[in-house]
Specification:
single chain; alpha+beta; Umud Fragment, subunit A; six-stranded antiparallel β-sheet; four-stranded antiparallel β-sheet; 3 helices; 23% strand
């Protein structure tokens, strides 16, 4: 006996239920990971940190020591200075609350583009490190019309224990607007996912 084929709309409905179950399961796993990460952040040293800001991929990072061989392309954490925070607040950028920094904010996560001894040139509107243009380094206006004021256009030499960093999202708040910073930890991605643009 040959059973009649189910109508396409029924097949689509069944597939939708299966997809919904997968989506709900994925959401529950994600929530469990976030809660676990928040707990581990307080009890694990070196820390497992959860990045909550969309300027870099969201997710969990291992926070290891900076070490002495910091290189361009490395991911690092740093504590924003009061000046960096106030410049951001002036255009509606609010730092995430936290306990690891003296400013009572969470640390920032950036990808290093310049290390001690490098020459950083901002005079042509973008960032050039030792003469090489850094992609997506031109300062831009953020969403909701906020205008981020770029760092003064001149040539900077990166000082010892300092670095320049950039966000993966072009609307991120990074060294284009405040210059150098002192890394406090090296970030190693554990579980991350792409964020929506800022």
């Amino acid at each position: 006996m040959i059973l009649p084929k189910r109508p396409a709309i029924v097949e689509h409905f069944i597939k939708g239920i299966c997809d919904s179950r997968t989506w709900v399961f994925s959401l529950l796993v994600l929530l469990a990971l976030i809660v676990t990460g928040e707990i581990l952040t307080h009890f694990v040293e070196p820390h497992i940190r959860y990045n909550k800001t969309a300027s870099m991929p969201l997710g969990f990072y291992w926070d290891g020591p900076v070490g002495i061989n910091l290189a361009r392309g490395d991911l690092v954490f740093f504590c924003p200075s009061p000046e960096i925070i106030s410049r951001g607040l002036a255009v509606g950028i609010h730092s995430v609350n936290g306990e690891e920094c003296p400013t009572h904010t969470a640390s920032f996560l950036k990808r290093i583009i310049a290390i001690p001894g490098d020459l950083v040139d901002t005079r042509k509107g973008d960032i050039r490190v030792n003469g090489k243009v850094i992609p997506r380094s031109t300062p831009i206006s953020g969403p909701r019309g906020r205008l981020l004021q770029s760092i003064l256009p001149q040539t900077y030499k990166v000082a010892p224990n300092q670095a320049w960093g950039i966000s993966e999202d072009p609307f991120g708040y990074d060294s284009r607007y405040y210059g150098s910073f002192q890394p406090i930890g090296r970030a190693y991605p554990l579980i991350t996912w792409k964020a929506h643009s800022l």
